[in-house]
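LOG
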Amino acid sequence: MNRFIKPARKAAGVSRRRLLTGGAVVGAASVLSVPLLADSAQAQMRRTFGARRTMANDVQILNTALFYEHAAIWAYSAAAPLLSSSDVGNAVKAIAVANMEDHMEHRDTLISVIRDLGGTPAEAQSEYDLSAYLQRGEGNLDSDVNIAKLALALETDAAIAYGKEIAMLQTPALITAGASIGATEASHATLIRAAFQSLGIDLSPIPTAFINADTRSSWVLTV
């Protein structure tokens, strides 16, 4: 799925609306509140036959999603110091900070829900492997533009992964929350593509009506 960047400090006053010009509008889906999500999920599980098995299944899937969020945060944090202080570098950094804040909120929500459901949240690793992306030429860490391409590939994979993972959940409340997070990941990919468009690159922010394994090549950009 995706592998990404680690918590840089929250940029005060960063607004997605100020990141891009030219009328690009990117919507971001909101995540259900932790208490509401956990309470609703637990109530539904108690009414479900085989609740323990259902809970174990959903906790495992949520931990897989948490792995992806940890990886995304690490990736953004690792790449942020490599960006230049040019206009392009600053624009990429602003997008990275905004996207990473979402990943951190997703991480915190998943950790709370997993604990409330009696599970043990997956811990963040010290580093994550980006070699597959680099070998495929889907970005790199050697320039502002290539870092943005790498972020695009990771966010695209995150959106695709959430689509697969939520299909295996057995609790409606968790499915709803997972779909909401997946929509936000897709908006991250759209935002990055819109940034490339604002730089004069001839591409559509939303290249296909769907974002999945079959359309992935239309979303990512190679070096």
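LOG (cont.) second protein
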Amino acid sequence: MTQLPDLNHLSHSEKDTLIRALWAQVQALTVRVAELEARLGEPAKNSDNSSQPPSRDKKANRQDKLPRKGPRQGSLGRKGGGRAVSATPDETVIARPMCCAQCQALFAAADHQLIDRYDKIELPKVMPVVTRVELYAGQCQACGSTTLAPLPDGLEQGSPFSINIVALALYLRFTHAISYRRLSRLMLELFALSISEGALDAAFQRAKPCMEAEVGAILSRLRRARVVCSDETSVRVDGRTCWNWVFQNNEVVIHVIRHSRGAGVVSEVMAGHRPALWVSDLYSAQQGHAADWQVCLAHQLRDCQFAIDAGDTIFAPRMKMLLLRAFVLARRRHHLAQTTRRHYRQRLERELDAVMALAPITRDARRLRKRYGKRRSYLFTFLDHPEVDPDNNSSERELRPTATYRKVTGGFRSNWGADLFASFRSVVGTAARRGIGAYQALKMTLHGTSVLAPG
């Protein structure tokens, strides 16, 4: 209602209806005001008590540094060690004086003494190597057929740019978030290679099937895995908010970008496979996909800290101490016998009983107590299955490049570009688990060599 009607023209029943409507509106606004007032009393969220990244924290101004005493020795006050000389120098220059600078007397071999050895490093001038191919065809005089000359691998007709150039462009585009325009300029100025933005786009589209084939092999390995960790973050694709999901373990990584944040994405990726163990946060779409589940305790630590900042002195401090004790045990879990781990879990469960018996009075603490009452059996799964971590930090580390790429570029203009990025992250993440660098992994994939170990 934007304007009060003329009450003189309303009947008694119409006035009663108006009063009831206004009363309902007042009640709704009262509830809303109470919610806003409660929110004003909450502490500010930061990286210590929420999932907010540290880059968004408010940082205090640094105090003026005290004047340095003595010469600088390395960074952060450490003793400088210098750069180690190369074991295999490409060239060695030996500088020996021939005669005395004072009296011009000639030096013998025994008069020389080595006083220093160091390296000088230079980059060679990088120029593209152009191979001209002249393809001939032979005309048979006997049967009249035409035969084309065979070509060496890599010199087939089509794009003039080699696989190594495409791999370098993909690496710079998706690892360092370099735009098409800057990438084209970089290639020209650093490598004297003229390649247009359209040629880069076409090269990426030709590389996409090779990347997808490798992702298919990685995905089949994931669908046999015993442990799967998952997480997701938002991305922008063609002006719409989508979600970059990651599924990973110690062997493989799979990224997919979908319009949905629902559990259907998990069902699509896993294709009916039900792992023994799942690690994730408390988001409902990531629950119920495995026989057992490990809740990310790092998220719970931050939520407990937020409740403490909000004024809880009863429940959250005790719960935080219990979770920290669990992290201490997690560092030792691989070196403990099964019976010892079972004993430690029973002790943690008893301490959790004592914490759950507390009666918190603040809203955030009551919410935490209700949460752990429902999911307490999934807090210490890592003690029964030491192959899983007590947190989901490995998945968050896999999504960090996605967040960086999103901030630098703003998102993707096309669905195929988003899919190519997901394939790139899958291949590079899987290769990193085998000690293979991103650029080397791209060259292997484009040459048809899998980054997966046999098995």
